[in-house]
Design brief:
The chain has 6 helices and 6 strands; from the N terminus they run ββααααββαββα. By secondary structure, it is mainly alpha-helical. Helix 1 packs antiparallel against helix 2, helix 2 packs across helix 3 and helix 4 crosses helix 5. The termini are far apart.
Length: about 200
């Protein structure tokens, strides 16, 4: 259902806005808490059982669920500001949510590694898991490959893992084709006018 083009599950959160850089076209994908839960399942941040538990909690307390949805959108926008607008102060909400997530967490050993166990599912679980994921994302050593689609309106983001590091579009068959067609017709029009 949600796009998975960025090369990182949590980075895909930034692509839950359609036409990010064109205010007149901009469209929010995470319009309900249930859609947030669905995104988290698709990103591997929640199990389907946790999704069901969170959905039941949201039905019992829709006001808190909506506040959590808004906080998640705030985290998404803070991550965008940090990564693409390079606003250092934008890390504050991410750090705060990360610290809140770890305040109730325990460190657990799985086969060969250690991981944070954030406990049983609550309405805050999606935000906490996203915050942990965002910190992991910000600590990656390949963020020099981070790019934004070159379309004038799109704004989707991705890690350029192409061998020559020359990827220009979020999706070559979408924004890429549209922009190549636009450039072709502009060249044809310029040739016709030059005659």
């Amino acid at each position: 259902m949600f796009s998975r083009i960025s090369g990182d599950a949590v980075l895909d959160l930034l692509n839950t806005v359609e036409w990010r850089i064109n205010e007149s076209l901009r469209e929010e994908d995470l319009t309900t808490f249930d859609l947030v839960l669905q995104w988290c399942v698709e990103a591997g941040l929640l199990s389907s059982g946790e999704q069901g538990a969170c959905s039941r909690l949201a039905a019992q307390d829709p006001k808190t669920a909506e506040l959590e949805r808004e906080k998640i959108i705030g985290l998404r926008e803070a991550a965008y500001e940090v990564l693409f607008e390079h606003r250092p102060g934008a890390t504050a909400p991410i750090v705060d949510a990360y610290q809140e997530a770890l305040a109730g967490a325990t460190l657990s050993r799985t086969d060969f590694s250690w991981t944070w166990d954030l406990g049983t599912a609550t309405l805050m679980t999606p935000r906490h898991r996203i915050a942990v994921g965002l910190i992991d994302l910000l600590r990656r050593d390949d963020l020099d490959r981070l790019h934004q689609c070159e379309d004038d309106s799109c704004g989707w983001v991705y890690l350029d893992t192409s061998p020559r590091r020359n990827r220009r579009w979020c999706v070559a068959s979408d924004c890429g084709d549209r922009n190549r067609s636009r450039a072709y017709y502009a060249r044809q029009k310029a040739k016709a006018q030059a005659k």
